Amino acid sequence: MQILIFFHILGAAVWVGGVVFLGAVLIPSLRGLDSDVRRRIISRAGRTFGIIAVIAFVDLVVTGILIYFGKGLTIGDLLSMFAGRIVLIKVVLSIVLVALTVGHVFYIGPKISSATNAPRGLRHASDAVSGLILVVSLALVWFGVVLAT
């Protein structure tokens, strides 16, 4: 069980750490650069992180399921027990996180990358969705802490 928890925490660290790095370090450090150069760097970094993020997310789902059932919980416990309800909240938040991420990666990101001068509204949408991705990611970590204590 400890190895599963280790890999679960590692997956969360990779996911949240990457989201924080992109939003708090990379993007702000590129401000003031030529918009085409900035767009290419962000696009390349996003694709690279995307590969790592998918691996981390799969790790989180697989280890989360194994930990849940390894503790002797059942599907029926999702509604009848406190731990099950917390896991159910994490499942819903994970679905929201996937939807936000897919929307950002496959809709907003390409629209910004293909525009020579992305409309301000699209950039604001990108910032808002990125912020929501961070908030939902941190909520998932919080509910993980609640389960562990």
Textual characterization of the structure:
By secondary structure, this protein is mostly helical. The protein has one domain (about 1-149). About 85% of the residues lie in helices and about 0% in strands. It is built from five helices and no strands. The longest helix is centred in the middle third of the chain and has 36 residues, at about 35-70. It is elongated, with a radius of gyration of 17 Å. It starts with a helix and ends with a helix. The mean pLDDT is about 90.
Question: How does the SSE layout of this entry go?
Answer:
Elements: H1 2-29, H2 35-70, H3 77-80, H4 82-114, H5 120-148
Q: Main attributes?
A:
0% strand; 149 residues; 5 helices; 87% helix; mainly alpha
Number of domains: 1
Radius of gyration: 17 Å
Question: How far is the N terminus from the C terminus?
Answer: 16 Å
Order of helices and strands: HHHHH
The number of distinct helices, counting runs of at least 4 residues, comes to 5
In a nutshell, what does this entry contain?
The protein contains five helices and no strands. The protein is mainly alpha-helical and 149 residues long.
